[in-house]
Give the backbone structure.
Amino acid sequence: MKMLYSRKTLIVSALLLCAGLLYVQWRWHFVNFTGLLEVLGGTLGATMLGRSPRAVWTLLRDLPRRMRAPADDKSADIEFFLDIAGLYRQGSVQTAEHSVRILADPILRGGVHLILDRTPREDLVRLLQWKSGALREQDQGEIQILRTLMMLAPAFGMLGTLFGMVQMLNLLDHAGLQQVGGAIGFALWSTVYGLVFANLLIKPAIMRLEQQARERRAWECAFTEAVLMMHDRRNPSLIREYLQTLTERPHTPLPHGRILAMATHH
């Protein structure tokens, strides 16, 4: 029932949007709904031919939220990881196993799981590299989708311009100025929509996702080394100092002993 209501809401919203755009086109001549539909529809359709439609829709749906999202705060994960590293160093493996689910970062969570499963160091390095590579491929795939959109939008804008000019030439002999003006408007505004869509909407989104991807790569490198230090049973204080030095961020002390307190009950 909830899904049915959601679909009805989407349909009504789409109809209202189309009606609003048609009204705007009738009211103001600087908006050309046909050109906008040609650029957006053609760009999305061509992108889905070369990419997974599900991946494209998922990215476009999550893009507004990700554009507004602040930088990831890893301080809680770091503190939980240091507590788990302390338990592992003390030999409290069972308590550490119960505490792994608290970790949200995939590198830390996966690395701790492998350590507690007594994975050899060489295999641990290889598996962490594979996980980091998979995350990198996911980020690059999303950025490539946006790059495809940015590349195709001006192309479909120029295609709309070509169609509009051809239509204008066909109308010169037997049509009035209003029809010729409509064809010229479609031709010119198609190019404008393509350029605006590519450079004012998609390009800033690409820059934002690239910045977030670079930050994640830096954290992945730091966390990979931290996991290896935990495997070697290094002191958690040394791991903390390493993470502080590598990330070059001021350390904000957090309450300690959340997981160590759990050990007293076992």
